[in-house]
Amino acid sequence: MAEPGMGESGGDNAVATGPRTPALGVLVSGRGSNLRAILDAIARGDLRARAGIVISSRAGVPALEIAAARGIPTRVIAPRDYPSRAAEGAAVVAALSEAGVDLVVLAGYARIFDPCVVRAFPYRILNIHPSLLPAFAGGMAPKPQADALAAGVKLSGCTVHFVTDEVDAGPIIAQVAVPVLDDDTVERLAERILAAEHTLLPEAIRRVLEGHPRVTGRRVLFDHR
Ligand code: GAR
Q1: 78-97 pLDDT, tens per residue?
Q2: Does residue 215 lie in a domain region?
Q3: Which of 96, 154, 182, 204 could be a cystine partner for 174, CB 3.0 to 4.6 Å?
Q4: How far apart are CA 187 and CA 210, in angstroms?
Q5: How far is the CA of 105 from the centre of ligand 1 (A)?
Q6: Is 107 near ligand 1, meaning CB less than 6 Å away?
Q7: Residue 128 CA to ligand 1 centre (angstroms)
Q8: Is-above-0.90 flag for pTM?
C-alpha cells in the first residue's frame, strides 16, 4: 500500500499562519480550458490551493495567456529544446521544485513523462483523460473521443488518475460518465465530455488535497469526501 504524500507540512511558520495553501503545478499544451476551470474553482473558493506555476510544452498557446492574465508564473519547456526525454523531464522537475509545487496536474498536457518526473512526484501527479479509462487509453483529444464513437459505446466520459510510468493506467481517482448520443459527432461528444471535465478536475484535485488518499493495489480510497 502506498501513502501519497501531499506535502502537508506547513513550513517553519505553519503554527503562526495556519496550514499553508497547497501549490499546484499545472502542465498544459494548448487551449487551457481545464486550467481555466481550476483557476475559477480557486477564485470561487471551491478549491483551497494556489497555482504556483504553469508549464507548457508549446510556446504561444492560449493556456499560457490564461495563466499570464492571472499573474501566474509560466514556463515553456518544449521537447525540441532538450537533447533527450530525460533532460526535458529533469527541466520539468527543476521548474516544479523551484516553484514549491505540492501537486502536479496534467491538464491537456501532450507529453509522456520520463520516469524521473514520476519518481520525483510519486502519487502527486494527476492527469485528466477524455474517456472512461481503462477504455480508450492513449492518445490526445480528440482521439479518445473519436475512438469511443467509432467503437459504438453508449457511455463515455472522463477520468482523473494518478500518473505512473504506464500511460493512462495509473490508479483512478474519479470518473464521470457522459452518454453517447445517436446524432453525436466527435466534436459534439468532445464538447460534452469537456464540460464534465471542468467540474471533475477541480473536484478531484480537492479530494486528493483534502481526502487523504490511499492507493491500495489499483484502487484509490479516501478517508472522507
Ligand atoms: C481535454 O479534453 C483533456 O481531457 C485532453 O486534452 C483536452 C485539453 O483541453 N487530454 C488528453 O487527451 C490527455 N491524453 P484543454 O486544453 O482545453 O484543457
Answers
A1: 999 999 999 999 999 999 99
A2: yes
A3: 204
A4: 34
A5: 12
A6: yes
A7: 7
A8: yes
